[in-house]
Structures are given as structure tokens and as C-alpha cells.
Amino acid sequence: MSGKSPPLYIHETLGTISMEVIFNNIESRIKELIKNARNELLIVVPWINNKDIFDQILLKCPTVKTTIIVENDEINKSANLNYQSFIDSGGLLYNPQKRLVHDKLCVIDNETVITGSYNWTYGAEYKNHEHIIVSNNSEIASIFKSEIDLILQECKEVTDYNSSIESTFERISNIYSSMEISIGSLDEIGKVILELYHSNKIDEGINLVDAVINEIDFTKNNSSEFNKELKYGILIFKLLSKEELKAKEYHSIFNIKGSLKTLKSAVEAKMKLYTNKDRTNIISKAPKLIMECYNERYYLIGLNLYRSFTGNKVSKYHFNNDLALAGYIILLANNLVNEADELFQNSRLTKDKRKIQMLVKSEIRIQI
Predict the structure, then answer these.
(1) φ and ψ at 32, to 5 degrees?
(2) What is the DSSP letter of 183?
(3) Mean pLDDT, to the nearest integer, of 178-188?
(4) Do 196 and 208 form a contact (C-beta atoms < 8 A)?
(5) 83-128 pLDDT per residue, tens
(6) What span, in angstroms and rounded, lies between the C-alpha atoms of 298 and 275?
(7) Which ranges of 92-137 does DSSP label H, i.e. alpha helix?
(8) C-beta of residue 24 within 8 angstroms of C-beta of residue 9
């Protein structure tokens, strides 16, 4: 390898096919393409929390037929995007029912196609290495539109967003019942395992983790191949089943940098809140526990802990400034920028907002 970085932007014409490959400032290009839509937008993206892109979609919705297929999960629910306004403006919203839809597709006016690795999230824009490919060819658009038609057959239309959010366990049960445990399905299974933990389905989580471990020999695979949800989920449910030695073993196999002690403390605190044991004492320790999760880079676990403490009600701030600050930091670490900004404003934090943002972006330890 030459060691040279790829160009940030490539534009090639291959025969009659015009194609752009974009590595940087992807959000701006997507918004521009959406803004220029005349007749129809077909959007299939599993996760969307980028409010700037979503707001551009809302602007087009009254005059352009717009369809969005997006996952019905904690990531999208916590983004606080106004899907009800989207529906009320004539937009068509669908949630997959059988399988995880991992495509990132947008077909515009039966001609332009956007695809690539990029979820429409702040993390994709500001933290990850991502790309999109934009083509302007009606034949290619027709192929992708046919794929979207097939996906729609496995989706449920949402007509009342505020009352349509099904129970997490019902959703993940539908996914799990249709999958087989294999190396190829582990990313999906990892999300299911962590959703079971979030929704306090402990027995189901233990059973699923045991089934995964019985099928997969993790010692024969590179730990970097597995997502964080899978790794954390296995550790969590081994701790919850009182198999601490096994938890230590998998902590080593997965080469997790954060300490098992911190993870155990977070899990125990969440379970005490769920069972309403020693609640007052646990809540008093909330800022410290959340910040331990942040500093050990257990971002997903810290977020779940924050939501357990606050009841996931960002409009009510019956907690002290330390908890608000810890919540702000863990929301930023999970790229939930809109919710973080709302929390900062409503809790009237006086800290240097820009400095905190820079520390989180650089993954620097923070003490509060």
C-alpha cells in the first residue's frame, strides 16, 4: 500500500453512468440532493438521528411523495425526530417487521441513487470513516427501487407514530424467531441481546447468550469482527447469571479495554433500579456511575443507565446538575446531539459547552 489517503471526492463517468464517490461532508451532499427532489423520495436507512437531514426531508414532504423505511428501535426512538409531523405532512413511514434492514439507500425521482456505508446519523458524519456513492442513471434507479419494493413487503406502515411504538421485546422476538445463529447473523443478534437487557428481559437474554456461545467458538475469530452490542451483551448476561469467571474469560477474549468492575457496577445499579431496591442510594451515585461508563468507553451502557435514572423523560429535570452534566456527556458520546442540546438548555448547565464537546469528540477522560 502507498499509504496515501483516498481523495475526499471522486466524480467519474463510466460509459453513460455518471457516478460520484464521496468520503467527506456527506451530510451536505445528501441535503442538496433531497432539496433538489421534484417528484419522489424513497429512503431506506436503518438509523437516522441527524436532525439537519431530517428537517430537509420535512421541507420536501408536502410537495414530494416521500417514503422512509427505518428501524423501530431504541436508537431511532431516542433521536426525538418529529416523525408524526412527517406523517401529517403526507410522508409514508414504515418499520421492518421480520429482518434487520441494513441497506442505506435513497432513490430520488426514479433517477438518482444514494447508497454506501453511511447511516444518516451524527456519528457517521463526524466520527466514522464512511462513504456514499451517487449515481444518476434511471436503469440503476429501477434496480434499487425494485429492492425497496421487496423490503416494503416485510414492513408495517406507521400512521400514528406516537401510539405505534411496539414493545421492544415484541419487536426483537420477531427478529430472533426468523434468524439462525451464525457468524453472519451476529451483528443482528448482538443488538437483540442488548435490547433484551435494556427492556429487563433477563431470562430471555441469558438463554440467548447461552445459545450463541453453544454455537460460536469466539476463540477462533478476531474480536474486532464482533460489534460492541454482542460483546457487552455476553458479558452483561454472564454477570447477571452469576458466572463471573465466564464474564472474565469473555472480557479477555473480546479484548475490551474498559474494566469488568465498572461494567458490573453499572449492571448492578440498573437491576437495583428495576427491582426498586435501594433506589435513593443508587440515584445519589448516578453521576459517578455514568461517568465511569463514559471514561471506560462503555458508552451504550452509560446511556442505558442514564435513561434508567431519568425515566427517559428529557422534558423533566428533577435531578441535580452533576446528573445533568453526566447525562449531557453520555448523550454526546452516543452521538445523540439533539437530545444533549435540549438537556443542556433545560437543565441550565453553566459549564463550557464547547470545551465539553471537544473533550467528548476526542474521547478524553472527564471528571465532574
Answers:
(1) -65, -45
(2) G
(3) 66
(4) yes
(5) 889 999 999 999 988 777 889 999 999 999 999 999 998 878 877 8
(6) 23
(7) 122-126
(8) yes
